Structure formats: C-alpha cells, structure tokens
C-alpha cells in the first residue's frame, strides 16, 4: 500500500492572487486559460494556474467543486494534485505544480509528429497506468484519458491531469442515482463524458452503462496515439468521430499516408493494446492486471524519458505560441474529408483491432473476409445503431449526394410512398439525406435486413403526439427512418425508402407506420441534439450536463424502439425473402 | 493474529467490533510503543476498507443486503460512528476517504425498513456540531463536510442544524478563501435550505428577520463574485418554491430587498443579471405591491424598460422571454398610487 502513496504534508500555498506572478500563457480552452506562474512567497516556486471563467458555468458550480475536491484529495506520485484553489473575481484559480515539459500531446506535435519510440511509450504508459490503478482503487473514473492529459516534468516524471470530467462511484451526486435507497449497486455511469476519439464504445452508446473499463479503452487509444502521433479517426472532426464514425467508411488516412517506413512495434505492445481495445468491457483487463503485462516488464525510468524525450524540446510556452499560430492557419478545413469519398458510406458494425497493422479497422456487416478473419478482435457496437449524418447534410446541403445510390430504388419505394401518404404520416424532404447510410455496396444484397437508421429515438409517447406537430409541415413524403440495404435518396422531395422490402407491396401494420413517424420525429429531435452537441464542442460548456442527460434519454428510447422495430422486421422478413 | 482471522472468515459484525476496538485504541492518544501503534492503525485502515467493500461491493461482487444490514445494525448498536468521527483526524488520507464513504453509505441502509442511522443521529445531534465545525479545519473540512451532507438527508438532522446556532456560521464558511471548502459549505447550505420543504418553510418563517438580513448583507451584497452568484441563484430557488410562498410574499414587499435586487440587475456579469431577474420578476408580478415598491419601480421605470429591451439569455429561452414580457407590461402599466 505504502509505495504508491505520497504522504508528504501538503504545504499551504497562499490563497490570494497577489502572491503569484504570472509569467506566460501556456494553454487555453473554452472556459479556462492555463498560465505558468511563480509563487513569490514560496521561494518563487513555479506553478501552473488554471484560471476557469466561472461566469460560463452553471451556478451550482458542481463540476468545478468536484474537480477541485478530487484533485485535492488524491495523493499519488502519478496524479497531478491541486496545491490550492481560490477565486479571483470571476475566475477560479486552480494552482498545481508546474510540469515543465507539458503534455505528451504537445511534446509529440513539437518533436514526434509520427509518434514516440516504443521504449518511451512504455515508460509513459506504465506511469499512467499506476495513476489509473490508484484512481480505480479509489472508486474514481478519470473518463478523459489521452496524451493531452498526461503531463511530463523536466525530470521525466509523468502525471495524469485534468479531472474536469472525472467521477466517483461513491459520490451519489455524480452517479445520478441519488435515490435515498441503497439501490443501483452496479456502480455504473450512463452519462457521456470525455473526448470523442478516445471514448469507449459503451460510453458512446451503451444501454447498460459503463464503468472503469471505459478508462482502459481510452488508455488503449492513448497507446495508439502515442505510437502514431494521433488517435485513430482524428482526421475527422470530433463531432463526427463521435456521431458518425460508425456510419462512415473511413480509412486511417493519416496513418496510411505517412510515407515513412512503417514503424515496427513489439508483439507484446500490440498484444497489450489489443487487450485494452476489446469491445467487451468485461474482457478488458483491469489497470492492476495490465501493469503485470509483459510489455511493462523491464520498463525504463524517468531518466530515460529525460534523455530520449525531453532533450532539445522547446519550452512549453514557446510550443504553445507556435501551436496558436499554426492553428490560425488551419481553421475551417473541418469538412474537407467529406468531399473525398462522398457516397461510399457503409455500415460498420464495430471495430477490429488489427494487431498486425496496429490500427483499429472498421468491421462491415456480412463481410465474410473480415468477420471470419482470425486473430482480429471483433468489435461490435451493441445496438447495431447507426447514427445518421444529420448535421453534415444540414450544413452543407447534401454533401453525400446519393443520386447514384438512388438508382433503381425509386421503383421499389414508390408503392410504399402511396401507402404512407394515405396513412397518417408525412415528412419533409430535407430529412432524407440524414438517413442515408448502408452503402451502395450493400444495395444488391437482398439478404440484408433493414437497418435502423437512427440512434436517438424519442419515446413512444412522444411518437404519437408528434405526428400532429409535423402535419403542419410540408406534407407528402414518407418518413425514412428505416433503411434497407439500399439507400435513401437525398434530394429535396425525394422519397426516402422506409423499408427494405424488395418488391414492395406489403401491407404495413399501422403500428409500424406510427413507429416510422416516431423515428422521423426523433430525427428532428436528434438534429437539434447534434447541432447542440457540436455547439458544445465549439464552445459553451455550461449546457454540457443538460445535453448529456438528453442524450442519455435518447439512448434509452432508442433501445426501446429498436426492439420494437426488430419485431416488425421479423414480421416482414418472410415477404421480403420472396 | 492475522492468521487466526484468515482461517475463519470474519462476519460483518466481527469487523465492526474489531474496528470499534481499534478506534478506541486510536482515540487514546499516542502510545509510547510507536511501532505497535503503527501496526494497529494499519489494521484499522484495512478494517475500514473492508467495511466499505461490504457496503459498496467490489469489482468481483455486489453488496449483499443481509451483510449490509448486519453491519449497519452493529455499527449503530454502540457508539462506533462517534468514535469514527472523533478519530478521523488521526487516520491517514486514504482511510479518511474510506471512512467518509462508509458513513455516507450507512445513512441509506435500512434495517427492518428503518433508517437506523437517522434514529442514532437524532439521539446524538452533538455529532453534527463536530462535523459543522470541521469547516474551520482545512485538513478535515472536505471529509466532515461530505459526512455532514449525507447526515442532513435525514429530516430530523436537517432540522437540528437549521435551528442550531451553527446556521449563522455558514454565511462565513461559504466565503472562506479556500475554494474547495467554501464550495463544499455552499453545497451543504443549499441542501439545508432546499431539501426538506416543510422544515425549510417553517425555519424561514420563524427566522425570517435575522436570516434575510444576513443573507442580504453578507451574501447578496458580498464583494465576492461567486458568493453573489450562488446566493442570488439560491434565493430564486427558495422564493420560487411553492412551499415558501408566505416567505416570498414577505420578501417581495420590502423596498430594501428590491433595491438589492435592482443593483444585482445592473451587474456586469450576465449570469448574475439573469439570476437576479428571476427574483426581480417576483417584485414586479406581485399583485399587491406596497406603495413604496410601486414608487421605486415608477421612478426607475424608463431605466428598467431600457435594460429589459436588450436583455437576453445566451440560449433562446421561451419562458424567460415570456417572463420578461410580463414584467415589462407590469412596469409599463404602473401608476403611482401614493401621494394621497
């Protein structure tokens, strides 16, 4: 127990701003700025000060309260502790030790754009894992493990930082299950927190919640990040990585493009990462267990990092200035990759961690080559949920124009349209592109079952009420919520093929139609959600909690409707087989 | 010794008893035989961690209701909670955290569908005094504060604290320079004034004068941004709660209160302005405005209307806009009643 604890008495740092002299800005986020400063009365000890703009936070300040509390009650050599925190007018200053080499993300972008040498990675990961094992033993989830939150000091020591979204399973207020009873013993979280690229699949859309193993996934992604210089999918903007990566065929363009000879990584490294990236959280090892993995045998110490990582590195403040200039030049090229392969979106049912290529590969459903491949770990996203490309289409028209994909679909879809019109539903055409997915490749595949094309579905009650609301809108086109192996058509006023029934002419149960309306309505909801979410990534943390809650509700409702649809699919499948 | 215990798995009751014995030992002050003491303190830490794992379960197993009930019963059968609270400063950081979590959990454990923790605390309210005074001790504040917040979930305990002299201390605690501690005290203060509706309403009615005098001068007119911000938000929550309608009516009839709220409306902080508006609207919407309130509103009519003209929330908020429109209507329609 003793060796992993830091029991030195905490010197009391002064609680007034005049005792600190700000030297330089070394980081900035949406509502916080980080400074390098010295604490004058403490022999001008260097410190980092995170100045959080309180006016942008909700008035209960629960999030910052938990963050500072966590940071002042944790005590471990690999965890960045808060020396003190106090308010300076509208800002909260959180004073921490100054980690002069900055974050690994910053170190990589300055000196190791293609990733670190494996021996350095081992040191960093082992130290991080020590921190993680400690946190988990304490009942804390970090929930935001990534290179940007792993800091290095000039002596090569490594500390895990940023407890802004961390949570404790013992803290009733953070679990949400604050009921007075002793229920919900599973110690699970359901709110979505973290940074998209690093989020475990069960965090993004699990119906059952997640726990410590979500940190292990993020740890695995961080390992890939350290190895390649950036996390998988990072060529997509975060909102897309979060919501759309599942629908998009994506390539590891970044990893593939680099012309340099492929880096060689050891078998044990690949194996270790593979264990972390198991889709089934229960199969991922605990932090404690992972520490015993062969990859962490004979790991070098902090001196090794000092010599091999920090030599010749520009100072944190200089790197920050450089990155600020660099960022100015690349603003707004977010959407670029969308124009690349416009129509070839395919459904991906999960990820394969490709151990040989040391990458995450998408898994396409019914792709015998991939799903049969041995040695690859099959990563399936639970609900087979596909999140439509709403925001994208809304913003830039129908980028993924599906004209070609629409070929040959109209005939099949037409009868359906008539049925729907006579029914109770209508949908405005704009939404259709949102539902496209399930790429061309699958068009001919008759065996494909219909795929639910929405991830967040409003609950049944709202479904029915919602049809009134929408009847005000542009009538005519049926709601394309369910898509088959084919594709919904994008353009205005085109018909969204609601069901994959080849040959059409099927009588739809009334409830099914209602389900479609519900799904369609949910897409409106979701559209709002997605734009909110994107606004949230762009700025404004204040509504984060509320949005998380909404997302969670949507997820639950989604499950309910998915199950309902599954029933209908079963009902319909014999006719479609004919 | 250790081997003996391992051979026969200890029951939850055994662990509580042993913990109690060790706490009694820890309480007795430093032992001359230093090494022995260290060993016992380590054993105490292990026991407390074990209690935690029975109550919360661990990665391998879920908590077992029967074991939890036995543990809880034994814990409150004697003065274990008192010992634990008193000895807390003598424990190391990790054990303090474990102990806090154990105490928190015990508050929710039912034995024969009774919250026996509540019964125990009702008979031992002086423990609350220790916990509250913990805010004055930097090292203990967060641990005692967390325990306190769990304890005041019991209505009788909350009533004791509300009616105690300690209530006045919170006005200072929530402005302590140490943010962690001040924020913890503020969370407790808010809990005390919002959780048990009927109790709060009774407290506010009985203690109206001193409470709101303090609230206005120390919190709403504090020089500290975060204090004003939290206070005006909490004030809105309190006054808008149906159970406090009598208090609300009284509050919005005072011209001093109106003056303070109008100053908050003029703050440069958008967030404070918005929160202040939610209280200010009660003054304006009051259908029985006393003449001096009317005259203040009339005197400031044009300024207020100008202020509201470009008063917006960051995110579109229909309710806010509706409230604003109503306030504007009310103010625009005001006729000076007095001068009779």
UniProtKB/TrEMBL annotation, chain A:
ATP binds at residue 50. Pfam families: Pkinase. Residues 462-482 are annotated as: Disordered. GO terms for molecular function: ATP binding; protein kinase activity; protein serine/threonine kinase activator activity. The keyword ATP-binding applies. It comes from the Eukaryota. SUPFAM superfamilies: Protein kinase-like (PK-like) (SSF56112). Keywords: ATP-binding, Nucleotide-binding. InterPro entries: Kinase-like_dom_sf, Prot_kinase_dom, Protein_kinase_ATP_BS, STRAD_A/B-like. Residues 466-475 have a biased composition (Basic and acidic residues). Residues 20-296 form the Protein kinase domain. Belongs to the protein kinase superfamily. STE Ser/Thr protein kinase family. STE20 subfamily. This is Protein kinase domain-containing protein.
From TrEMBL, chain B:
InterPro entries: ARM-like, ARM-type_fold, Mo25. One of its GO terms (molecular function) is protein serine/threonine kinase activator activity. GO terms for biological process: intracellular signal transduction. It comes from the Eukaryota. Belongs to the Mo25 family. This is MO25-like protein At5g47540. It comes from Rubroshorea leprosula.
